[in-house]
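ZP: hey, is the zinc ion complex queued? I don't see it on the tracker
AM: it wasn't, my bad. submitting now with these inputs:
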Amino acid sequence: MSTIRRTAFWGLTVLICASASSSAAAADKLRLLIIDGQNNHNWKEMTPPMKKSLEATARFTVDVATTPDNKAPKDAWDSFRPEFSKYDVVLSNYNGQPWPERVQKALEEYVDNGGGLVIVHAANNSFQGWTEYDKMIGLGWRGNNYGDRVTIDDKGETVRTPKGEGPGAGHGPQHAFTVVVRDSEHPVTKGMPHEWLHAKDELYHGQRGPAQHMHILATAFSAKDQGGTGTNEPMIWVIPYGKGRVFTTVMGHVSGKGDPAIRCVGFQTVVSRGAEWAATGKVTQPIPSDFPTAGKVSLSTSDTDH
Ligand code: ZN
């Protein structure tokens, strides 16, 4: 082999290896689909920073499917046909009009067949009356007659309050609050501090629903002097649905650009680890070194310039 031919040979080999390893890296990534388009929150200021922080983990490729807006003509929905089965996990940042029945059925089949679903904040307000969705989310932003309520008492015991009793969905004024991990062995919460301070957010209380097979990973104390209920309200929970996994966090309120709740490193970690777990049942992402502590909020600065 001449020098020139040898150089060409090695050059080609390097090229082939480089392209093989980059496609292997892409193949290793989980495919995640964010759905947005309607929300009583500023979804346009939520999706880009969530997409960015998910991609920053190097664990996901992220696509976004945006529904028609709520003033669009009915036939605008004909083109809303998200291909759930192309994805490992679907993240809902949607709270609005009911989806066409074929899309509802497609989501049910997708999760039933093993797909992952992540519900963020007001996504659990959506779709009141969609029975299978209620089963997936367990608890939603509903009135107290809609279903049971689940909280955790001071001894760490789960308390079920029947429908019709106690408060329905609500929240007091936004404030920073302490998230208490209730299962430190679950892949999502393993390695997190037992208590950590979440940035200013709405603290949801009185969520209602069927709450079957619901496993609470973290709670926050809803203080009466903050307009709350005086008990530990679920903040993060998981529910199996068929062969699939559903992960919910009710944290993440955004009404304007740069709002702190979704810049919280704790929230971002919860979402990205929750999404990986919903997709695979495992979590490989480390807890970041700037994760909040019991006494200190930690805001990501990298996603304020989106
Ligand atoms: Zn909100």
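AM: back. The radius of gyration is 21 Å.
ZP: great, adding it to the tracker
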